[in-house]
Write a structure and sequence with these properties.
single chain, eight-stranded mixed beta sheet, 12 strands
């Protein structure tokens, strides 16, 4: 069995979890060395639903993703980076200053943001899609995870920190808490047995501003 090439390919599949000896994951560098060391596979997953849990929307959680957004929007053959119903309007000058290619960024509004998020994830037209939700239903989360896998898209769902007590099909969950110069990041769920907490320092520029 050890020499079976079909078995070897199966064991390297990124969706396979083997406990402490997980198969290699296809990942995207986060841009933060300490965060990469915390994340399973040492980076953000290429696709699937992840959750970032924060005490208050608009408190700087986007800083965590700016290096990723800059990298994927400037890559050769880049697809779209879509923001679905953000609570704060993206501030274009700050995004551009962080290296994000604005011609690859789109903002989608609407009265049914989770439905729109699912369609964006499923479309196959995006590298990354972001959305915010306070109380999604379990079946909605399952649909989002499946849509992200089928569309080969990294879906980032921001939720309140209180959601940590609830089960989720997301492949990765991080908890954020503000600290003196940035944020404290806790790995709550991942394709790894490891758990841990780190602190990251934010830059001074803000990537978003209030609507209106």
């Amino acid at each position: 069995m050890d020499g079976d090439p079909k078995l070897a390919r199966l064991l390297e599949h990124p969706a396979l979890w083997r406990g402490r000896s997980a198969a290699r994951l296809a990942v995207l560098p986060s841009g933060f060395t300490a965060l990469d060391e915390l994340l399973p596979g040492r980076g953000w997953p290429h696709s699937g639903l992840i959750e970032i849990l924060t005490a208050r929307f608009g408190s700087g959680e986007l800083y965590l993703l700016l290096p990723l957004l800059a990298a994927v929007t400037r890559a050769v053959g880049a697809r779209w980076c879509v923001w679905v119903a953000p609570p704060l309007m993206p501030f274009a000058p700050a995004l551009a200053a962080a290296g994000v290619a604005l011609d690859r960024v789109a903002v989608v509004g609407g009265a049914r943001p989770l439905w729109a998020f699912e369609q964006v994830l499923r479309s196959g037209a995006c590298d990354v899609a972001l959305a915010w939700a306070r109380a999604p239903k379990a079946r909605e989360l399952r649909r989002l995870q499946l849509a992200a896998e089928r569309g080969r898209t990294l879906g980032v769902l921001f939720r309140p920190r209180s959601a940590a007590r609830q089960a989720s099909p997301a492949v990765l969950r991080l908890g954020l808490a503000p600290c003196a110069a940035g944020v404290r990041v806790t790995l709550l769920k991942g394709r790894s047995a490891a758990r841990g907490t780190i602190e990251l320092t934010w830059p001074h520029e803000r990537p978003a501003r209030p609507r209106g």
